[in-house]
Protein backbone atom coordinates (compact mmCIF):
# COMPACT_ATOMS: atom_id res chain seq x y z
CA UNK A 1 0.00 0.00 0.00
CA UNK A 2 1.08 3.50 -0.73
CA UNK A 3 1.79 4.85 2.79
CA UNK A 4 0.04 8.08 1.89
CA UNK A 5 -3.28 6.30 1.37
CA UNK A 6 -3.65 6.05 5.12
CA UNK A 7 -3.87 9.85 5.18
CA UNK A 8 -7.06 9.70 3.08
CA UNK A 9 -8.11 12.98 1.57
CA UNK A 10 -5.25 14.76 3.27
CA UNK A 11 -3.42 13.92 0.06
CA UNK A 12 -5.39 16.74 -1.53
CA UNK A 13 -2.37 18.67 -0.25
CA UNK A 14 -0.47 17.45 -3.32
CA UNK A 15 -3.19 16.97 -5.87
CA UNK A 16 -1.69 19.48 -8.33
CA UNK A 17 1.66 17.62 -8.30
CA UNK A 18 3.07 14.41 -9.81
CA UNK A 19 6.19 12.75 -8.43
CA UNK A 20 8.53 11.66 -11.23
CA UNK A 21 11.85 9.82 -11.17
CA UNK A 22 14.35 11.92 -13.15
CA UNK A 23 16.25 8.75 -14.14
CA UNK A 24 13.61 6.17 -15.09
CA UNK A 25 10.79 8.68 -15.63
CA UNK A 26 8.34 6.52 -13.67
CA UNK A 27 5.59 8.68 -12.15
CA UNK A 28 4.09 8.23 -8.70
CA UNK A 29 1.08 9.58 -6.87
CA UNK A 30 2.34 12.18 -4.36
CA UNK A 31 2.65 10.99 -0.80
CA UNK A 32 4.22 12.84 2.14
CA UNK A 33 6.51 9.88 2.86
CA UNK A 34 7.55 8.93 -0.65
CA UNK A 35 10.93 10.47 -1.46
CA UNK A 36 12.78 8.00 -3.69
CA UNK A 37 12.07 5.94 -6.80
CA UNK A 38 11.18 2.39 -5.79
CA UNK A 39 12.99 1.07 -8.87
CA UNK A 40 16.32 2.96 -8.93
CA UNK A 41 16.44 4.80 -5.57
CA UNK A 42 16.89 8.29 -7.08
CA UNK A 43 15.19 11.22 -5.30
CA UNK A 44 11.88 12.05 -6.98
CA UNK A 45 11.02 15.41 -8.53
CA UNK A 46 7.75 17.07 -7.51
CA UNK A 47 6.42 18.25 -10.83
CA UNK A 48 3.86 21.01 -10.51
CA UNK A 49 1.07 20.39 -13.02
CA UNK A 50 1.34 23.89 -14.48
CA UNK A 51 -1.82 23.45 -16.55
CA UNK A 52 -3.84 23.13 -13.32
CA UNK A 53 -2.52 26.24 -11.55
CA UNK A 54 -2.26 29.99 -12.10
CA UNK A 55 0.48 32.40 -11.17
CA UNK A 56 -1.78 34.40 -8.91
CA UNK A 57 -0.26 36.35 -6.04
CA UNK A 58 -2.32 36.54 -2.85
CA UNK A 59 -2.17 39.44 -0.44
CA UNK A 60 -0.99 37.42 2.60
CA UNK A 61 2.47 37.92 4.05
CA UNK A 62 5.57 35.89 3.23
CA UNK A 63 5.89 32.94 0.88
CA UNK A 64 2.24 31.89 1.19
CA UNK A 65 1.36 34.70 -1.20
CA UNK A 66 2.52 32.16 -3.81
CA UNK A 67 0.27 29.47 -2.37
CA UNK A 68 -1.22 28.56 -5.77
CA UNK A 69 2.17 27.01 -6.59
CA UNK A 70 2.74 25.34 -3.21
CA UNK A 71 1.34 22.26 -1.43
CA UNK A 72 -2.23 22.90 -0.21
CA UNK A 73 -1.82 22.27 3.50
CA UNK A 74 -4.83 22.34 5.82
CA UNK A 75 -2.98 24.35 8.48
CA UNK A 76 -0.28 26.88 7.71
CA UNK A 77 2.50 27.20 10.29
CA UNK A 78 4.14 30.51 9.46
CA UNK A 79 6.43 33.13 10.98
CA UNK A 80 5.97 35.45 7.98
CA UNK A 81 9.13 34.13 6.30
CA UNK A 82 10.27 35.27 2.86
CA UNK A 83 9.85 38.72 1.32
CA UNK A 84 13.55 39.30 1.96
CA UNK A 85 15.27 42.37 0.51
CA UNK A 86 17.17 42.34 -2.75
CA UNK A 87 19.98 44.80 -2.18
CA UNK A 88 22.11 46.31 -4.93
CA UNK A 89 25.81 46.47 -4.08
CA UNK A 90 27.36 49.92 -4.19
CA UNK A 91 31.04 49.43 -3.31
CA UNK A 92 31.81 45.97 -4.67
CA UNK A 93 32.33 44.80 -8.18
CA UNK A 94 29.67 45.17 -10.90
CA UNK A 95 26.94 47.68 -11.69
CA UNK A 96 24.17 45.11 -11.54
CA UNK A 97 25.06 42.94 -8.59
CA UNK A 98 22.35 42.22 -6.05
CA UNK A 99 22.33 40.35 -2.78
CA UNK A 100 19.17 38.45 -1.84
CA UNK A 101 19.54 38.75 1.91
CA UNK A 102 18.04 35.54 3.22
CA UNK A 103 19.61 36.22 6.61
CA UNK A 104 16.58 38.42 7.28
CA UNK A 105 14.20 35.47 7.50
CA UNK A 106 12.68 34.84 10.98
CA UNK A 107 15.42 32.46 12.14
CA UNK A 108 18.13 34.08 10.03
CA UNK A 109 18.36 31.77 7.03
CA UNK A 110 16.59 30.65 3.84
CA UNK A 111 15.66 27.39 5.59
CA UNK A 112 12.53 29.10 6.94
CA UNK A 113 10.98 29.14 3.47
CA UNK A 114 11.19 25.37 3.32
CA UNK A 115 10.39 24.80 6.96
CA UNK A 116 7.06 26.66 6.83
CA UNK A 117 5.97 24.23 4.10
CA UNK A 118 7.52 21.15 5.70
CA UNK A 119 6.19 21.77 9.21
CA UNK A 120 2.76 22.72 7.82
CA UNK A 121 2.66 19.34 6.07
CA UNK A 122 3.78 17.59 9.27
CA UNK A 123 0.97 19.35 11.15
CA UNK A 124 -1.58 18.65 8.43
CA UNK A 125 -0.84 14.91 8.45
CA UNK A 126 -0.80 14.74 12.25
CA UNK A 127 2.92 14.06 12.89
CA UNK A 128 3.94 14.40 16.53
CA UNK A 129 7.67 14.52 15.77
CA UNK A 130 9.91 16.07 13.13
CA UNK A 131 13.52 14.98 12.62
CA UNK A 132 16.43 16.70 10.87
CA UNK A 133 20.18 16.32 10.53
CA UNK A 134 21.82 19.71 10.31
CA UNK A 135 24.92 21.84 9.99
CA UNK A 136 22.94 24.27 12.16
CA UNK A 137 20.50 26.41 10.20
CA UNK A 138 18.06 23.61 9.46
CA UNK A 139 18.07 22.75 13.17
CA UNK A 140 17.42 26.36 14.18
CA UNK A 141 14.60 26.71 11.69
CA UNK A 142 12.98 23.33 12.38
CA UNK A 143 13.12 23.99 16.13
CA UNK A 144 11.38 27.35 15.77
CA UNK A 145 8.63 26.17 13.40
CA UNK A 146 8.01 23.00 15.42
CA UNK A 147 7.71 25.09 18.59
CA UNK A 148 5.09 27.19 16.85
CA UNK A 149 3.26 24.08 15.63
CA UNK A 150 3.39 22.25 18.96
CA UNK A 151 5.41 19.41 17.37
CA UNK A 152 8.50 17.89 19.00
CA UNK A 153 11.70 18.47 17.06
CA UNK A 154 14.65 16.04 17.02
CA UNK A 155 17.90 17.41 15.60
CA UNK A 156 21.04 15.41 14.85
CA UNK A 157 24.21 17.51 14.68
CA UNK A 158 27.85 16.84 13.82
CA UNK A 159 29.65 17.19 17.16
CA UNK A 160 31.68 20.42 17.27
CA UNK A 161 30.61 21.29 13.71
CA UNK A 162 27.79 23.75 14.37
CA UNK A 163 28.18 27.52 14.72
CA UNK A 164 27.32 28.89 18.17
CA UNK A 165 24.38 31.07 17.12
CA UNK A 166 22.65 28.16 15.40
CA UNK A 167 23.10 25.80 18.32
CA UNK A 168 21.78 28.51 20.66
CA UNK A 169 18.61 28.78 18.56
CA UNK A 170 17.98 25.02 18.66
CA UNK A 171 18.47 25.07 22.44
CA UNK A 172 16.20 28.09 22.92
CA UNK A 173 13.33 26.54 20.97
CA UNK A 174 13.63 23.30 22.97
CA UNK A 175 14.76 20.89 20.28
CA UNK A 176 15.82 17.40 21.38
CA UNK A 177 19.48 17.56 20.39
CA UNK A 178 21.74 14.63 19.46
CA UNK A 179 25.41 15.03 18.60
CA UNK A 180 27.23 12.43 16.53
CA UNK A 181 30.94 11.97 15.88
CA UNK A 182 31.80 12.86 12.30
CA UNK A 183 30.52 15.31 9.74
CA UNK A 184 27.02 16.31 8.65
CA UNK A 185 27.02 13.32 6.30
CA UNK A 186 27.14 10.97 9.30
CA UNK A 187 24.30 12.87 11.02
CA UNK A 188 22.20 12.56 7.86
CA UNK A 189 22.93 8.85 7.68
CA UNK A 190 21.41 8.49 11.18
CA UNK A 191 18.26 10.31 10.09
CA UNK A 192 17.84 8.39 6.84
CA UNK A 193 18.37 5.05 8.58
CA UNK A 194 15.80 5.86 11.26
CA UNK A 195 13.08 7.14 8.97
CA UNK A 196 13.34 4.07 6.78
CA UNK A 197 13.03 1.92 9.91
CA UNK A 198 9.51 0.40 9.84
CA UNK A 199 9.09 1.05 13.60
CA UNK A 200 9.20 4.82 13.12
CA UNK A 201 7.76 5.21 9.64
CA UNK A 202 4.70 7.38 9.64
CA UNK A 203 5.21 8.81 13.13
CA UNK A 204 8.29 10.98 12.66
CA UNK A 205 8.36 13.38 9.74
CA UNK A 206 11.83 13.96 8.20
CA UNK A 207 12.54 17.48 7.01
CA UNK A 208 15.97 17.37 5.45
CA UNK A 209 16.20 18.63 1.92
CA UNK A 210 15.75 15.15 0.44
CA UNK A 211 12.14 15.93 1.36
CA UNK A 212 11.09 17.57 -1.87
CA UNK A 213 8.20 19.47 -0.24
CA UNK A 214 10.65 21.55 1.76
CA UNK A 215 12.33 22.56 -1.49
CA UNK A 216 8.94 23.73 -2.76
CA UNK A 217 9.06 26.48 -0.16
CA UNK A 218 12.62 27.40 -1.10
CA UNK A 219 11.73 27.85 -4.78
CA UNK A 220 9.90 31.07 -3.79
CA UNK A 221 13.31 32.78 -3.77
CA UNK A 222 13.06 32.68 -7.57
CA UNK A 223 9.53 34.12 -7.58
CA UNK A 224 10.58 37.03 -5.37
CA UNK A 225 13.64 37.81 -7.50
CA UNK A 226 11.49 37.75 -10.64
CA UNK A 227 8.86 40.03 -9.06
CA UNK A 228 11.52 42.61 -8.28
CA UNK A 229 14.03 42.63 -11.14
CA UNK A 230 12.78 40.16 -13.75
CA UNK A 231 15.09 37.34 -14.80
CA UNK A 232 18.75 37.93 -13.90
CA UNK A 233 21.64 36.65 -16.04
CA UNK A 234 23.23 34.73 -13.15
CA UNK A 235 22.13 33.44 -9.77
CA UNK A 236 25.02 32.41 -7.52
CA UNK A 237 24.27 29.99 -4.68
CA UNK A 238 26.42 28.35 -1.97
CA UNK A 239 26.13 24.58 -2.31
CA UNK A 240 26.20 22.14 0.60
CA UNK A 241 23.66 19.35 0.53
CA UNK A 242 22.71 20.86 -2.85
CA UNK A 243 18.95 21.32 -2.40
CA UNK A 244 18.69 25.09 -2.57
CA UNK A 245 20.30 25.64 -5.96
CA UNK A 246 17.87 23.10 -7.42
CA UNK A 247 14.92 24.71 -5.63
CA UNK A 248 15.72 28.17 -7.03
CA UNK A 249 16.22 26.77 -10.53
CA UNK A 250 12.91 24.90 -10.23
CA UNK A 251 11.17 28.16 -9.32
CA UNK A 252 12.44 29.85 -12.48
CA UNK A 253 11.63 26.77 -14.55
CA UNK A 254 8.04 26.79 -13.31
CA UNK A 255 7.70 30.46 -14.30
CA UNK A 256 8.94 29.45 -17.76
CA UNK A 257 6.57 26.48 -17.96
CA UNK A 258 3.73 28.80 -16.96
CA UNK A 259 4.64 31.07 -19.91
CA UNK A 260 5.54 34.02 -17.65
CA UNK A 261 9.24 34.23 -18.52
CA UNK A 262 11.17 33.03 -21.55
CA UNK A 263 14.62 32.39 -20.15
CA UNK A 264 16.15 30.88 -17.03
CA UNK A 265 19.19 32.43 -15.31
CA UNK A 266 22.51 30.70 -15.32
CA UNK A 267 22.70 28.80 -12.01
CA UNK A 268 26.19 28.96 -10.48
CA UNK A 269 27.02 26.75 -7.50
CA UNK A 270 29.88 27.70 -5.16
CA UNK A 271 31.64 25.18 -2.94
CA UNK A 272 34.52 25.62 -0.51
CA UNK A 273 37.79 24.04 -1.67
CA UNK A 274 37.86 21.50 1.17
CA UNK A 275 34.24 20.47 0.62
CA UNK A 276 33.76 20.48 -3.14
CA UNK A 277 32.44 17.09 -4.27
CA UNK A 278 30.43 18.67 -7.08
CA UNK A 279 32.75 21.49 -8.16
CA UNK A 280 35.79 19.18 -8.31
CA UNK A 281 33.96 16.69 -10.50
CA UNK A 282 32.59 19.48 -12.71
CA UNK A 283 36.10 20.84 -13.32
CA UNK A 284 37.30 17.38 -14.35
CA UNK A 285 34.39 17.02 -16.78
CA UNK A 286 32.95 14.04 -14.91
CA UNK A 287 29.23 13.36 -14.73
CA UNK A 288 28.94 12.57 -11.04
CA UNK A 289 30.47 13.94 -7.81
CA UNK A 290 33.65 12.82 -6.12
CA UNK A 291 32.43 12.28 -2.57
CA UNK A 292 34.68 13.44 0.28
CA UNK A 293 35.00 11.63 3.62
CA UNK A 294 36.31 14.49 5.73
CA UNK A 295 34.99 17.78 4.35
CA UNK A 296 36.83 20.79 5.69
CA UNK A 297 36.12 24.53 5.48
CA UNK A 298 35.57 27.51 7.70
CA UNK A 299 32.05 27.75 6.22
CA UNK A 300 30.37 25.14 8.43
CA UNK A 301 27.00 25.43 6.65
CA UNK A 302 28.49 23.92 3.49
CA UNK A 303 30.92 21.52 5.17
CA UNK A 304 29.34 18.55 3.42
CA UNK A 305 31.13 15.76 1.54
CA UNK A 306 28.24 13.67 0.20
CA UNK A 307 25.43 15.94 -0.93
CA UNK A 308 22.25 13.94 -1.03
CA UNK A 309 20.67 16.23 -3.65
CA UNK A 310 23.68 16.16 -5.94
CA UNK A 311 21.76 14.93 -9.00
CA UNK A 312 19.16 17.65 -8.54
CA UNK A 313 21.84 20.35 -8.32
CA UNK A 314 23.76 18.89 -11.23
CA UNK A 315 20.70 19.11 -13.48
CA UNK A 316 19.92 22.67 -12.35
CA UNK A 317 23.43 23.78 -13.28
CA UNK A 318 23.65 21.79 -16.50
CA UNK A 319 20.21 22.70 -17.89
CA UNK A 320 20.76 26.39 -17.14
CA UNK A 321 24.22 26.48 -18.80
CA UNK A 322 25.72 27.27 -15.43
CA UNK A 323 28.72 25.87 -13.61
CA UNK A 324 30.23 24.99 -10.25
CA UNK A 325 33.21 26.88 -8.87
CA UNK A 326 35.41 26.55 -5.76
CA UNK A 327 36.73 29.24 -3.43
CA UNK A 328 39.15 28.92 -0.55
CA UNK A 329 38.60 29.92 3.07
CA UNK A 330 40.67 33.09 2.81
CA UNK A 331 38.64 34.19 -0.22
CA UNK A 332 35.47 33.52 1.78
CA UNK A 333 36.71 35.65 4.69
CA UNK A 334 37.72 38.48 2.35
CA UNK A 335 34.29 38.41 0.72
CA UNK A 336 32.57 38.41 4.12
CA UNK A 337 34.45 41.61 4.94
CA UNK A 338 33.58 43.20 1.59
CA UNK A 339 29.89 42.49 2.17
CA UNK A 340 30.23 43.89 5.68
CA UNK A 341 31.49 47.11 4.07
CA UNK A 342 28.24 47.15 2.09
CA UNK A 343 26.38 47.02 5.43
CA UNK A 344 25.56 43.33 5.06
CA UNK A 345 26.46 40.81 7.77
CA UNK A 346 26.38 37.38 6.18
CA UNK A 347 27.70 34.05 7.36
CA UNK A 348 30.77 32.50 5.67
CA UNK A 349 28.82 30.12 3.40
CA UNK A 350 26.86 33.09 2.05
CA UNK A 351 30.01 35.15 1.49
CA UNK A 352 31.32 32.39 -0.77
CA UNK A 353 28.93 33.68 -3.47
CA UNK A 354 30.76 37.00 -3.77
CA UNK A 355 34.12 35.20 -3.75
CA UNK A 356 32.87 32.92 -6.55
CA UNK A 357 31.50 35.86 -8.53
CA UNK A 358 34.86 37.67 -8.34
CA UNK A 359 36.70 34.56 -9.43
CA UNK A 360 34.46 34.02 -12.45
CA UNK A 361 34.89 37.66 -13.48
CA UNK A 362 38.68 37.28 -13.26
CA UNK A 363 38.50 34.12 -15.33
CA UNK A 364 36.31 36.01 -17.84
CA UNK A 365 33.55 33.48 -17.50
CA UNK A 366 31.05 36.17 -16.58
CA UNK A 367 31.03 39.90 -17.16
CA UNK A 368 31.01 42.10 -14.06
CA UNK A 369 28.04 44.11 -15.25
CA UNK A 370 25.74 41.21 -15.98
CA UNK A 371 22.63 41.20 -13.81
CA UNK A 372 23.76 38.87 -11.05
CA UNK A 373 22.07 37.84 -7.81
CA UNK A 374 24.13 36.47 -4.92
CA UNK A 375 22.05 34.37 -2.55
CA UNK A 376 23.19 35.36 0.95
CA UNK A 377 21.70 32.33 2.65
CA UNK A 378 22.33 33.07 6.33
CA UNK A 379 22.97 35.94 8.77
CA UNK A 380 26.48 36.81 9.94
CA UNK A 381 25.52 36.70 13.62
CA UNK A 382 25.00 32.96 13.34
CA UNK A 383 28.75 32.39 13.51
CA UNK A 384 30.44 34.82 15.92
CA UNK A 385 33.60 32.67 16.12
CA UNK A 386 34.38 33.26 12.45
CA UNK A 387 33.75 36.99 12.79
CA UNK A 388 36.44 37.05 15.46
CA UNK A 389 38.97 35.87 12.88
CA UNK A 390 38.74 39.31 11.29
CA UNK A 391 41.04 42.06 12.52
CA UNK A 392 39.91 43.10 15.98
CA UNK A 393 40.59 46.77 16.71
CA UNK A 394 39.24 47.45 20.18
CA UNK A 395 40.53 50.76 21.46
CA UNK A 396 41.03 51.00 25.19
CA UNK A 397 40.94 54.31 27.08
CA UNK A 398 41.47 55.15 30.71
CA UNK A 399 40.38 58.77 30.82
CA UNK A 400 38.14 61.25 29.09
CA UNK A 401 41.20 63.18 28.00
CA UNK A 402 42.73 60.17 26.31
CA UNK A 403 39.38 59.50 24.64
CA UNK A 404 39.24 63.06 23.28
CA UNK A 405 42.80 62.85 21.98
CA UNK A 406 42.08 59.71 20.04
CA UNK A 407 38.88 61.13 18.58
CA UNK A 408 40.82 64.23 17.51
CA UNK A 409 43.43 62.07 15.79
CA UNK A 410 40.70 60.13 13.99
CA UNK A 411 39.10 63.35 12.77
CA UNK A 412 42.42 64.73 11.56
CA UNK A 413 43.31 61.58 9.69
CA UNK A 414 39.98 61.23 7.87
C1 LIG B 1 23.80 29.43 5.32
C2 LIG B 1 23.69 28.27 4.41
N1 LIG B 1 24.11 28.41 3.14
C3 LIG B 1 24.06 27.38 2.28
C4 LIG B 1 23.60 26.15 2.66
C5 LIG B 1 23.61 25.03 1.66
O1 LIG B 1 22.32 24.77 1.17
P1 LIG B 1 22.05 23.37 0.48
O2 LIG B 1 22.33 22.32 1.50
O3 LIG B 1 20.63 23.42 0.08
O4 LIG B 1 23.00 23.29 -0.67
C6 LIG B 1 23.17 25.94 3.97
C7 LIG B 1 22.70 24.62 4.43
O5 LIG B 1 22.77 24.31 5.58
C8 LIG B 1 23.20 27.03 4.86
O6 LIG B 1 22.81 26.91 6.13
ZN1 LIG C 1 14.00 5.63 -10.92
Main attributes of the structure:
single chain, alpha/beta, Rossmann fold, six-stranded mixed β-sheet, four-stranded parallel β-sheet, about 15% strand, binds pyridoxal-5'-phosphate, binds zinc ion
**How would you sum up the global shape?**
globular
Radius of gyration: 21 Å
Going by helix content, strand content and strand pairing, the class is: alpha/beta
**Span between N and C termini?**
74 Å
Q: Low-confidence runs (pLDDT<50, min 5 residues)?
A: 1-8
What is the tally of beta strands?
Answer: 13
What can you tell me about this protein's structure?
This protein has 13 helices and 13 strands. It has a domain at 86-108 and 214-387: Rossmann fold (3-Layer(aba) Sandwich). The longest helix is centred in the last third of the chain and has 15 residues, at 348-362. By secondary structure, the protein is an alpha/beta fold. The protein is globular, with a radius of gyration of 21 Å. It has a six-stranded mixed beta sheet, sandwiched between helices. A four-stranded parallel beta sheet has the order 8-7-6-9. A three-stranded antiparallel beta sheet has the order 2-1-3, covered by helices on one side. Helix content is 34%, strand content 14%. The N and C termini lie far apart (74 Å). The protein binds pyridoxal-5'-phosphate and zinc ion. Pyridoxal-5'-phosphate binds at residues 109, 135, 137-138, 209, 238-244, 301-302, 347, 349-350, 377-378.
